[in-house]
Amino acid sequence: MSHPRRVTASPVLQLTGITKTYPTRPPVTALAGVDLTVQMGERLAVVGRSGSGKSTLLNILGLLDECSSGRYELAGSDTSTMSAAERDRLRAERFGFVFQDSHVLGHRTVAENIALKLAITRTPLRERPARITEVLEKVGLDHRREALGRLLSGGERQRVAIARAVVSDPDLLLADEPTGNLDADSSTAVLDVFDLLARRGTTVVVITHDRRIAGWADRALILDGGRLVADHAA
Ligand code: ADP
Ligand code: MG
User: Fold this and answer.
1) Is 28 in the pocket of ligand 1 (CB under 6 A)?
2) Which has the closest alpha carbon to 190: 180, 198, 181, 179?
3) How far is the CA of 54 from the centre of ligand 1 (A)?
4) For the CA of 25, the nearest ligand
5) What is the Å distance from ligand 2's center to 116 Cα?
6) pLDDT in tens for each of the 234 residues of the chain?
């Protein structure tokens, strides 16, 4: 989080007529024609009732799943023409993810969990300790640096997941209910971290039920039955 980035007005994400049908019996259409343009550095909240397609949209944006039809362009490149290796590389090096289930490694310390992300992004070794300290201070976990993942509370684990997602200064941050387990103070700290990233050009997409986050975002998208029924300045 220490390098200022050039911010341009070019769309970073462009979705055109995105559909997603899961091949279950009967098939489930989770997204039914989503059009969306997002600029670099925008902060989006995605809201909608359970089953409306929020996580499916996040998975497609994060190249974790492929759409059934439509076009998804990332910084001008059609993602359908990317090789699996290219998608993997983007996910690992340019994206940050915060999932509902935080996926923090229980047998590693807080610092080690975060160091893994810095190893993946090939951050120079000498910079890693300071980057870890900086991000842990931001999420209020510097005192837990050497604690094992499995000994953390739910809220602490969630903050480790957030620290790990943002430490590499991703171009795109995708978060599914990142403040679900957090008290008001911790939620505020997390939103401050997201703001800092967005000001440096990170595009931030957050699924949330939390009205505060919906109000914090630049735009709130409402999904209903796999369709975007509203997209407005929050
Ligand atoms: P949300 O995150 O808004 O709760 P999801 O995107 O998880 O919604 O799900 C949208 C719809 O797609 C739901 O009807 C859900 O049951 C279905 N769905 C999600 N994932 C799968 C899957 N892997 N296989 C089959 N159906 C799925
Ligand atoms: Mg979901």
Assistant:
1) yes
2) 179
3) 8
4) 1
5) 26
6) 444 554 455 679 999 999 999 999 999 999 999 999 999 999 999 999 999 999 999 999 999 999 999 999 999 999 999 999 999 999 999 999 998 777 899 999 999 999 999 999 999 999 999 999 999 999 999 999 999 999 999 999 999 999 999 999 999 999 999 988 889 998 999 999 999 999 999 999 999 988 888 889 999 999 999 999 998 887
pTM: 0.92
CA dihedral 222, 176, 135, 11 (to 10 degrees): -50
Cβ atoms within 10 A of the Cβ of 122, count? 10
Return residues with CB closer than 5 A to ligand 2 (ion): 54-55
| Nearest ligand by distance to the CA of 21 | 1
Q: Decide which of 3.30.450.40, 3.40.50.300, 1.25.40.10, 3.30.300.30 is the CATH code for 42-52+88-233.
A: 3.40.50.300
Q: Say how many Å lie between the CA of residue 119 and the centre of ligand 1.
A: 32
Sequence ranges of the domains in the chain: 42-52+88-233
Q: Is the Cβ–Cβ distance between 203 and 171 less than 8 Å?
A: yes
CA of 50 to the centre of ligand 1 (A): 9
Q: Which two tokens stand for residue 209?
A: 């039920």
Closest ligand (CA of 48): 1
CA of 49, closest atom in ligand 1:
3
Q: Report the number of secondary-structure helices (H) and strands (E) in the chain.
A: 7, 10
